[in-house]
Amino acid sequence: MGYLVWRLAVKWRAQLDRELAPLGLTSAQYSVLASLHGLSSTGTQPSQRELADFAGLEPMFVSKLARALAQAGLVTRGSNPADPRALRLEITPHGLQTVTAARARVLRLEQKRLEAIDGPAGPRITELYDTLRTLLREADRDEE
Known about the structure:
Blueprint: H1 2-20, H2 27-40, H3 48-55, H4 59-71, E1 75-80, E2 83-91, H5 93-114, H6 123-143
Antiparallel strand pairs: 1-2
């Protein structure tokens, strides 16, 4: 089963990369930008570490991705008054436009991929979603 999950993840990421390339994003960059957008919608300006925790990514990887997103004008990185060692991230107006366009592409791709199991609203997806969440929670416990 692990092999099948891995193969599906590799294929999904490759499809995402192809879909997001016209917007100048990779799937990894999208995951950081979308996570930042989600956190920012609550009125917070997360640090890179907080964003890494939220996205489930390694802090060093988020730092690298945030630098690339900043160079592309999609986010800004500023100092954190509460912790001078931490950088706070903020999505730019260009970043907001990009993540909105990217999200539409991701949702279309997801819809297409889920048609094989009766679409995103079908009964099979609910069971699959619950199963994957259970497996992820268990994996998180193992990391503690």
